[in-house]
Specification:
The chain is an alpha/beta fold. The chain is built from 8 helices and 8 strands, in the order H-E-E-E-H-E-H-E-H-E-E-H-H-E-H-H. Strand 3, helix 2 and strand 4 form a beta-alpha-beta unit.
Length: about 220
């Protein structure tokens, strides 16, 4: 499906890296109910930002280098950015003492190597296979590394006075409803988006049957 979309721009995409979910954000004050999000000034990007606006937040977009100062001075009340390992390096835990989960807006991040389609067509099949094989290995290594590195960071949050918490159930429900509205609106404007969204929703439904049968439900211990 990605190849069809990229081909319209004369490009060949090769899936080459993936990382797992981000956090739902770093907040200066705790969230106890959905209403607590109303009026908060939050750094948020993309479609997720539109969803946050819909549930009542005031959204701003800042580059990475400006987020810490904005938190420190109170220009913003909260921020999302990346996974715990990356966020720690930016110092968010020094100011925002409430780190929320799950990363509903970005359950994974996919990275592609993009090759000009004319160049790709001229490459030897062995070179094409080599590049695709390298990227396949990169996906496995990258996902394994990024997943393994987050646990120690989260475990150590308490040592720096940070509380890692789940979003309130009523807020998560509002986010889910608002996200579906935003996705449907975007699908109405973009045929490619609509095709991909329909495919993802179908996969989610079908895979959900397997997940419910094959995996034990989460426990309070997080096992």
């Amino acid at each position: 499906m990605a190849e069809v979309v990229y081909a319209k721009h004369n490009m060949k995409p090769i899936f080459c890296a993936v990382t797992g979910p981000e956090t739902a954000g770093w907040f200066r004050e705790p969230l106890t109910a959905a209403e607590d999000i109303n009026g908060l000034k939050i750094r948020f990007a993309g479609l997720g930002g539109r969803v946050m606006q819909r549930v009542g937040a005031s959204i701003t977009m800042l580059p990475a280098g400006e987020i810490f100062q904005a938190l420190e001075t109170g220009v913003i009340d909260a921020t999302e950015f990346s996974q715990p390992l990356t966020d720690r390096a930016l110092g968010f835990s020094r100011i925002a003492k409430f780190n929320y989960y799950p990363g509903w807006h970005q359950p994974f991040s996919a990275t592609h190597v993009v090759v000009n389609l004319d160049v790709w067509s001229e490459m030897r099949s062995s070179d094409q296979a080599l590049l695709e094989g390298l990227c396949t290995a990169g996906v496995a290594r990258n996902l394994g590394y990024s997943e393994a590195m987050q646990g120690p960071i989260v475990r150590g949050l308490g040592d720096v006075g940070v509380s890692a918490r789940a979003l309130p159930d009523d807020l998560l429900a509002r986010l889910r409803a608002a996200a579906n509205e935003v996705l449907d609106e975007e699908a109405g404007r973009d045929a490619d988006f609509a095709t991909i969204l329909a495919s993802q929703r179908e996969f989610q439904e079908v895979y959900g049957e397997w997940r419910r049968l094959a995996y034990p439900p989460p426990t309070t211990e997080g096992q």
